[in-house]
Amino acid sequence: MRFYPQERMAIFIDGANLYGAAKALGFDIDYRKLLVEFGKRGVLVRAFYYTALAEGEDYSPLRPLTDWLDYNGYQMVTKPLKEFTDAMGRRRVKGNMDIELAIDAMEMADHVDHLIIFSGDGDFRRLVEALQRKGRRVSIVSTIRPSPPLIADELRRQADNFIELDDLRPYLARDPSARQSVRADVADDDDLDD
Q1: Any idea of the CA torsion for 2, 168, 24, 73, to the nearest 10 degrees?
Q2: Which pLDDT tens digit goes with each residue over 123-148?
Q3: pTM confidence score
Q4: Cβ–Cβ contacts within 10 Å for residue 63, how many?
Q5: Residue by residue, what is the 3-state secondary structure of the chain?
Q6: CA distance 185 to 117
Q7: 175: exposed, middle or buried (C-beta count within 10 Å: 0-12, 13-18, 19+)?
Q8: What is the pLDDT of residue 178?
Q9: Contact present, 137 and 105 (Cβ < 8 Å)
Q10: How far apart are CA 60 and CA 47, in angstroms?
Q11: How far apart are the C-alpha atoms of 126 and 6, rounded to whole Å?
């Protein structure tokens, strides 16, 4: 990875895409570590996280994550999932955040030197090209390790820098024992109430 300490950076995370890539590689992302790690590599101006949320549900499994991110240094960009019926009569949901990410990246390009996009979606190739025409460096974080790879070849070729997500595992992986130790602490506290 080529980073320069003086360069101003912004991070753009396609939440669904990053989740799928990390899951395929067998680890969970620690979003606090992600901010710290990229903050060491330059001047981190902003970190955006994009996800679609189901409306009208009493509980969403994404809500704890999005709330935590919102309070811990991430600019959250969300929109409601859209429900539709496909040609076969099956109920489907759609929550594409590509246009939101692209607009924010183009706006931030005037304020940063380096844009880091966590996604393997080939639709972003033209965005990367447009950012490069503005004189900005663009790094793409995704993975080629699973079969098939989770990054579009045209996106990987267009980027100034491709960063293999699996190579970041030592820096970004959430410690699975941390969740277990919290559960043990809660269990110990429950014992005190008896």
Answers
A1: -90
A2: 999 999 999 999 999 999 999 999 99
A3: 0.85
A4: 12
A5: CCCCCCCEEEEEEEHHHHHHHHHHHCCCECHHHHHHHHHHCCEEEEEEEEEEECCCCCCCCCHHHHHHHHHCCCEEEEEECEEEECCCCCEEEECCCHHHHHHHHHHHCCCCCEEEEECCCHHHHHHHHHHHHCCCEEEEEECCCCCCCCCCHHHHHHCCEEEEHHHHHHHHECCHHHHHHHHHHHHHHHHHHC
A6: 37
A7: exposed
A8: 63
A9: no
A10: 23
A11: 27
- Give pLDDT, residue 84: 74
In this structure, the dihedral spanned by the alpha carbons of residues 23, 138, 159 and 165, taken in order and rounded to 10 degrees, is: -20
93 versus 18: which is more confidently predicted? Answer: 18
Look-up of token digits 């030592």: 170
How many other C-beta atoms lie within 10 A of the C-beta of residue 174? Answer: 15
Q: How far apart are CA 186 and CA 191, in angstroms?
A: 9
Average pLDDT value for residue range 12-27? 95
CA dihedral 80, 159, 127, 111 (to 10 degrees): 90
The whole-angstrom separation of Cα 111 and Cα 107 is 8
Given the candidates 3.40.50.1820, 3.40.630.30, 3.10.20.880, 3.40.50.1010, the CATH classification of the domain at 8-193 is 3.40.50.1010
